[in-house]
Amino acid sequence: MKKTLWVVGALALSIAVLGAGCGNARQVESCDECRQGATYLETEFCVYGQGYSGGYHLYCANGCRSDADCMADYWCMPMVDQGTPYAHDYMQWVCMPRTYYTDGRTYYVNTCVGDPCPVGMTCIDSSTGEHFCSDSCLTNSDCASGCCYDDTMGHSWCVPWLGYCD
After folding, report:
1. For residue range 146-156, what is the model confidence (pLDDT) as tens digits?
2. What ranges do the domains of the chain cover?
3. DSSP string, 151-165
4. HSE on the CB side for 58, CA within 13 Å?
5. Phi, psi of 14 (to 5 degrees)
6. Entry pTM
7. β partners of residue 44
8. Most buried in the list 17, 56, 80, 91, measured by CB within 10 Å?
9. How many CA atoms lie within 13 A of 63 on its CB side?
10. How big, in percent rounded to 5, are the helix, strand and coil portions of the chain?
11. Does an H or E element contain 14, and which?
């Protein structure tokens, strides 16, 4: 009986490890270096990040739907927050390193229950049913997304451009 429980426990742990998020981003010289995957989560999207020529770096970043799709030291962020131009009619999300962001952040979380945001950030329940950890702001230029949204209660927060400032 103990051996069976041990085998079942080891199998469950293996499945949990395999199911853990593995999405990340890597700095590249050209968007041509990004790989097309078999699925959305395996595909790398070209992201314009801070610091590249003219103020930005290029990254190839895996798609994501939540932080659970990304490695432990990455956040699932709206791609437009990095200043990436695109023509989609939906919000594109990618795994980006947490160290990339210092101020003016906004990123998706599954829920605001239990205060999932780091110190200094506030969890926002949007009218669309999405949840974001957001830094406070005064103007659009304070935000990586370029969108500082007034919540009509006297506070302003960095939020994704699409749906709020478009």
Report:
1. 789 998 889 99
2. 21-99, 101-166
3. -SSS-EEE--STTTT
4. 13
5. -60, -45
6. 0.54
7. 62
8. 80
9. 14
10. 20, 30, 50
11. helix 2-19
Q: Which long-range contacts (CB under 8 A, 24 or more apart) does 138-144 make?
A: 140/165, 142/103, 142/104, 143/81, 143/104, 143/106, 144/50, 144/81, 144/82, 144/83, 144/101, 144/104, 144/105, 144/106
Tens of pLDDT, residue by residue over 40-80, are: 888 998 887 654 334 456 889 999 888 899 999 888 887 76
Query: Which residue carries 């110190």 as its tokens?
Result: 119
Amino acid at 82: Q
- Quick one: tokens of 64? 């994501």
Backbone angles phi, psi at 109, to 5 degrees: -130, 160
Token output for 15:
């499945």
Q: What number of other Cβ atoms are within 10 A of residue 126's Cβ?
A: 17
Chain centre to alpha carbon of residue 13: 26
The DSSP secondary-structure symbol of 119 reads: T
- In residues, how long is the chain? 166
**Tally of CB atoms within 10 A around 112:** 15
